[in-house]
Amino acid sequence: MQDLAAILKARKTVKPPAYEWQDLALRIIKELGIPDFKRSAVFKICRDHHKNTIEKAMNETKELCKNGSKWQYFFKVMASFEELQKQTKATEKI
User: Which of 39, 23, 15 has its CA nearest to residue 74?
Assistant: First the structure.
């Protein structure tokens, strides 16, 4: 009986992410092999951008970057999407 109690005590409870974008960020970190020093940038991208845009960038990264560091390509794709959004907003104001 003590063994069962010890097992239950040793069990770690994993908190689910508070927001949907946090779960998306964790999935991107896992699938693209994002290094530790860039994790915060992934969380910021997921917080600031729409889920569809991020998933589109991730899918494009998986399709086009067969070898090399996928995480660097992902950041380049997101930067190009941001630039495209800025250009679109600028033309809408005219």
Answer: 39
Q: What percent helix, strand, coil does the chain show, rounded to 5?
A: 80, 0, 20
Residues in the chain, overall count: 94
What single string gives the DSSP state of each residue in 47-73? HHS-HHHHHHHHHHHHHH--SS-HHHH
- In 3D space, the residue among 91, 51, 94, 56 whose CA is nearest the CA of residue 77 turns out to be 56
Q: Note the pLDDT tens digit of each residue in 28-67.
A: 999 999 999 999 999 999 999 999 999 999 999 999 888 8
- Residue spans per domain, the chain: 16-93
